[in-house]
Amino acid sequence: MAALPAGCARFDDSTAATDWHDAPELTAEAAPQPELPEVDEAPTPRGPSTSETPVPPPEGCTDYDKAVIATCLDTVSAVAPLPSDGSAVTVLAGERRSGRVFLVGTDGEPREVAKLDVEATGDGGLTGLALSPTYAEDGLVFAYITTSEDNRVVRFAQGRDPKPVLTGIPKGATNNRGALLSGPDGALLVATGDAGKATAAADPASLAGKVLRIDPAGGPAKGNPKADSAVYASGLHAPGGLCGTADGSRLWVTDQADEHDAVYRIEAGEDLSVPAWTWKDKPGVSGCADWTDMLAVSTEESGNMQNLPLTEDGSIGGEPRVTLDGEDGVTYGRLGSLAQVTGDVAVAGTVNKDGGEPISSDDRVVVIVRQPSSGSGRD
Fold first, then answer.
1. Taking Cα atoms as reference points, which of 251, 225, 226 lies closest to residue 239?
2. Distance between CA 272 and CA 228 in Å, rounded?
3. DSSP H or E stretch at residue 17
4. What span, in angstroms and rounded, lies between the C-alpha atoms of 103 and 51?
5. Which of 341, 372, 343, 328 minimizes the C-alpha distance to 106?
6. Cα–Cα distances in angstroms (integers) from residue 121 to residues 33, 71, 126, 150, in the given order
7. Which run of H or E residues covers position 164?
8. Rounded to two decimals, what is the model's pTM?
9. What is the pLDDT of residues 310-356, one digit of tens each?
10. 347 vs 70, 92, 338, CA distance in Å?
């Protein structure tokens, strides 16, 4: 077996340092960091509204919901928050079909920082974003994209052309979507679809249907089950999101399969054959956020948030409580990507222009405040 998986592009460390370091407008220090208007005064938790005054409907691209920080984008399939203590929120938001990446914040004015060349057929396009583990130093951003040839991971910085990191991930008529997550150990997790070939998920020689763990140059990360392989776990079909605890000790991936939607606890070297939770009604699970005592999962088809209680050992301890579905006064429609800003704050992108019923301010980036485990909700 070769030392690297097929299609892996390895970069010399000195090249990365010289070609990719200077990206001042994308660093957390230099990017716009306006305060989020009244985050603490927004309905808490961000689900069933506790306000006696209803939020006025949008007027064109103006959305009066204080949790909405960007409007009138196109199918926000990927979000990556910049480092923050939660008092201000600035996010990179990617559009699936156009490949455009915007810097958005609480000033409400999206600014395009990159445009990636993507092919959006078969649920592909731009479907994942993640900051480099050393983003504060190098300003690099990773993206999961579909091209005319394959699915791949690329990296970019503002003002510079994207560079391939991991290429040759199989592409098919369907199930091209993928997700990314930067780990605290410096590795990058990559969830890949099976490209419409379910058997590929169990094929150790294929990069399809896997959770891959790579270094920033695209090679197998140190500590993988097999030193010469990027494969960390197998058995995915159409992954929607990756998430985990801040220390990386607990990792999750959501997946849409033919028979059900599921969320899996990721363990190194394992076949993802036993879900932590399944949804027979297939709500279209997408992003996720680990709130320590609860796992929040966004959904595209049902357009809500599924809040799964977690036990002390990290297993799922009961039925999900549903929020953000309109029944309790707050809904954003189809929720796609979801990423944590802090232990209590996350951001989500809506995908209402992709098969939903968009309103005038769609698609949007929305701040989500953690739903307390003891809060209200419907079992």
1. 251
2. 21
3. helix 13-19
4. 30
5. 341
6. 35, 24, 11, 11
7. strand 163-169
8. 0.86
9. 999 999 999 999 999 998 789 999 999 999 999 899 999 999 999 99
10. 11, 10, 6
